[in-house]
Amino acid sequence: MSTNIKAAEAGPLRRYAPLLGVAIIVLYCLAPFYWMIVSAFRRPLDQFDNSLLPSPWSLDNLQAVFGEGVGFGRSLLNSLIVAGVTTILTLIVGLVAAYTLARLDFKFKNVVLAIIITTSMFPGISLVIPLLKLFIDIEWINTYQAMIVPSLSFALPLAVWTLTTFFRQMPRELEQAAMVDGCTPAQAFRKIILPLAAPGVFTTAIITFIAAWNEFLIALSMVNKKEIQTANVAISKFTGVSGFDQPFGTQMAAGVVVTIPLVIAVLIFQRRIVAGLTAGGVK
């Protein structure tokens, strides 16, 4: 009752200012994506038209993306392989490391955690030359592992940190009760802890997959064979009709194709993502 009275007494500016702020943020975030979609559906001759909607609508750019000889379908499959394998390996290694750090008591544990999160602060560009030299020596250039291993090193620190925080919120009595009932420590982890940690694991998997799917610098530096390159690298190497003009519309259409699956996945699993993020931070 008192809340309603205060809301009624507040001026219109104070009441609608939060909504206006949210609307501005949403427009700011969605404007580039909107323009990418609109540009994708313009005719190639209308690419530099500044109207808000295409007129007429055209599928020429989308057809050009999947045209014969472009190989964009194979690039999408490569992105799926790299992002999928990176996510699986990150979860396997990250779960074991995070559970160990959360449950075992040893000296300098917090220092170890600080070192792990510090490794994620290195700029990717500073690692390209050493990795390139190493991968040339061991003949990993133009292979999937040349993209997966660096992506794994980028994703693991945040995954270990997030999962460690999540496991620390879970009471030790859960494992102790399971072991009293006859479970081994490994069975207690697999049958009791892991299902309860599903929101945190799911959130880590989604964030890792999106980061690996969007990775560009390492994929561009370590692969120059068209059959192995990922979708992001393929988009950057699109050529125009003459080979010298900028295929702006085709790149926009390819960007829509690459982005839409991630948007749909986030919208479908947004409740699980929010649940995982808040569960690790509130408990």
From TrEMBL:
Signal peptide (residue range): none
Name the GO terms of the biological process aspect. transmembrane transport
* UniProt key word Metal-binding: no
- All copies of the ABC transmembrane type-1 domain together span 76-269
**Compartmental location:** Cell membrane
Residue ranges spanning the membrane: these are 16-37, 76-99, 111-132, 144-167, 188-213, 248-269
InterPro entries on file? BP-dep_ABC_trans_perm (IPR050901), MetI-like (IPR000515), MetI-like_sf (IPR035906)
| Primary location recorded for the protein, binned into one broad class | membrane
A Pfam family that this protein carries is: BPD_transp_1
Its membrane topology:
Multi-pass membrane protein
Looking up CDD domains in the UniProt record yields: TM_PBP2
Q: Which family is this protein grouped under?
A: Belongs to the binding-protein-dependent transport system permease family.
What is the recorded name of this protein? Binding-protein-dependent transport systems inner membrane component
Q: Which organism is it from?
A: Kribbella flavida (strain DSM 17836 / JCM 10339 / NBRC 14399)
Q: What is the lineage of its organism?
A: Bacteria, Bacillati, Actinomycetota, Actinomycetes, Propionibacteriales
